[in-house]
Amino acid sequence: MILFERFILDNGLRVIVHEDPSTPMIAVNVVYDVGSRYEDPEKTGFAHLFEHLMFGGSANIPDFDGPIQEAGGENNAFTNSDLTNFYELLPAQNVETALWLESDRMMQLNFSTKALNTQKKVVIEEFKETCLNEPYGDMWHHLSKLAYKFHPYQWPTIGKEMKHISDATIEQVEAFFYHYYRPDNAVLVMAGKIKPDQGYALAKKWFGDIPAGKNIKPTLPAEPAQKQFRQEILRQDVPHDAIYRAYHMDGRLSNEYFVCDMISDILSNGRSSRFYQRLYKEQHLFSTIDAFISGTTDPGLFIIEGKTMPGVSIDQASMAIDIELEFMKNELISQRELTKLKNGLESSLEFSEVSVLNKGISLAYFEMLGDANFINQEAARYHSINAEDIRRTAQNIFRHENCSELIYLKTS
Fold it and tell me: Do residues 359 and 20 touch, judged by C-beta distance below 8 A?
């Protein structure tokens, strides 16, 4: 059980304080309820661009990293389809350094043409490196667009195309910032050696005078049920033929999410998993094969990806995957396998809660989803799953018409 206190400042900032006296450190985590799903379809990649801009200087602080390093800490950030997250880990006595930095950039960024151009170049170079110059690097661009026709999950976090970033103006960037990077659209977590009343007082001191925003989000279109198999075949200079499948599934708070997470472990988590044992070790069909879930807030995707061994056709690979999915749909998992699976998941959850940084990030994430206490309910939701739940869910999602398939074929 992770205990915490929750406060809300007058400007709408939600504050979570988790005291852990066993550590001399403190994690400060700020999450903003803005990811790529809230972007204009003609101005994509802005949330990811802001992850970089937030380190480019704020109203009173030209350099973000220097003060953190001098305080003996470290910091980083990440962006996905649903949110943008910033965190610092530092000695507890220096917590105000992190709060000073986070509050200053929440108040106002350094909106200069020079800073914007610098970060645009960084993001464009990242786009080239990860999406254009790397084998299979454009996978998410193609698979997302194939699987989603209405919901903005149809483009990856880095954006649809480089032009959307290169064309970004100071006026567009400022408007995006003041719409989304406001206290009433954020959660602040302090986890570590700090008492709740101290954390609340510090939150008021550093964030209390930041004006609230309008916190008006666009209404996102729901993705209708997929009723027809979709496929795209790409011929590229890649080292192996590859197959990527996406099956639609429910969102992060649904029971189906937890069952799908468990199914992905059955199929591909570790050397005893079914894909590893049967498709890799016994049949030698794949050089690598994996199954995972996208984990998005709104209804997401169950992904299967595999790169074939030389001489193995895509048809052979596809048929082998189908056979394994049919087993999932028609045969009940044994109680022994189910118990082993649940024990592994529980161990993973417990291990993730050892670090104050992980706890800080998770508390912020679950509060953004609606209730930080979800962190204490996950283990029970996994334990409530039975063999029939797994079979029924597999039957529901692993349907041919619910599948979008992306194929890479080597050009030479």
Answer: yes
In a domain, 222, yes or no: no
Calculate the alpha carbon distances from 80 to 46, 89, 283, 296, 332 in Å.
11, 21, 36, 9, 35
Tell me the per-residue pLDDT of 132-169, one tens digit each, with 9 for 90 and over: 999 999 999 999 999 999 999 999 999 999 999 999 99
- Nearest partner of 406 among 269, 239, 278, 235, judged by Cα: 235
User: Is residue 160 located within the same domain as residue 76?
Assistant: yes
What is the reported pLDDT for 198?
A: 98
Residues 190 and 236 in one domain: no
Q: What is the DSSP letter of 62?
A: S
What is the extent of the structural domain holding 278?
Answer: 230-410
Question: Is 379 found in the same domain as 282?
Answer: yes
Report the C-alpha gap between 295 and 249 in whole angstroms.
10
Is the distance from CB of 153 to CB of 37 less than 8 angstroms? yes
Helix, strand or coil for residue 190?
strand
Residue with tokens 């390093």: 69
DSSP track, 207-268: HTTSPP----PPPPPPPPPP-S-EEEEEEE--SS-EEEEEEE---TTSHHHHHHHHHHHHHH
CATH code, 189: 3.30.830.10
**Whether the predicted model's global pTM rises above the 0.85 cut:** yes
**Is there a single domain that holds both residue 184 and residue 80?**
yes
Q: Of 192, 207, 222, which one is at a domain's C-terminal end?
A: 207
User: Please, what is the average pLDDT of the chain?
Assistant: 94
Question: Which residues contact residue 345 at a Cβ distance below 8 angstroms, ignoring those fewer than 6 apart?
Answer: 261, 262, 265, 379, 382
DSSP tag of 137: T
Domain count, the chain: 2
Q: Is 410 helix (H, G, I), strand (E, B) or coil?
A: strand
Q: How confident is the model at residue 412 (pLDDT cuts 50, 70, 90)?
A: confident
Q: How far apart are CA 98 and CA 74, in angstroms?
A: 10
The pLDDT value given to residue 307: 97
Q: Which two tokens stand for residue 231?
A: 């496929």
Cα–Cα distance between 216 and 320 in angstroms, integer?
47
| Percent of the chain with pLDDT strictly greater than 90 | 86
